[in-house]
Specification:
Elements: E1 3-10, H1 14-22, H2 27-30, E2 34-46, E3 49-60, E4 65-76, E5 81-89, E6 93-102, E7 107-116, H3 124-152
Antiparallel strand pairs: 1-7, 2-3, 3-4, 4-5, 5-6, 6-7
């Protein structure tokens, strides 16, 4: 299964980056390929753990199609992680993790996504294009969070 990754150091404290990362409904304002993100459910499971179910709507301009998926996220503030996976949607498989590590006044963000997206009649060339687009998307997400978190401090 293909995987995309990005690791970035954000010059903002953990609390700022953590709060911003959980505010997914605002992601379309900082990520142009995202059309809409909606929180469908939010449950505080314990003081350090929150479960959310979110619906994402993104556009792949190169394929002239939207991708819509619903994912479940488990945010754990003690571990500084968010594990997520698709529960329904257009991906054949979609899962990953955000890992946040405090570096004092800065935060390291490590994002990885494993995915599979089968498009009928699409060959290896288009799968390569999709891999490139997924990598650009994860890079854009990391940079957008970095820019916004650093702007806030």
């Amino acid at each position: 299964m293909p995987q995309v990754k990005n690791k970035v150091t954000i010059n903002a404290p953990f609390a700022v980056v953590w709060e911003l990362a959980q505010d997914v409904e605002k992601f379309p304002a900082i990520m142009p390929d995202l059309e809409q993100v909606e929180i469908l459910e939010k449950t505080v499971q314990s003081p350090q753990s929150t479960r959310t179910v979110t619906q994402w709507n993104s556009r792949i301009k190169q394929f002239n199609r939207s991708i819509i998926w619903t994912e479940e996220d488990i945010w754990n503030s003690v571990e500084g992680t968010c594990h997520f996976w698709q529960i329904k949607g257009d991906f054949t498989d979609y899962k990953g993790a955000w890992k946040f590590r405090s570096l004092g006044e800065a935060t390291e963000l490590d994002l990885s996504i494993d995915y599979s997206f089968e498009i009928p009649l699409v060959g290896a060339l288009m799968k390569g294009v999709l891999q490139k687009l997924m990598q650009q998307n994860v890079d854009m997400m990391a940079q957008a969070l970095k820019k916004e978190a650093e702007r806030r401090v």
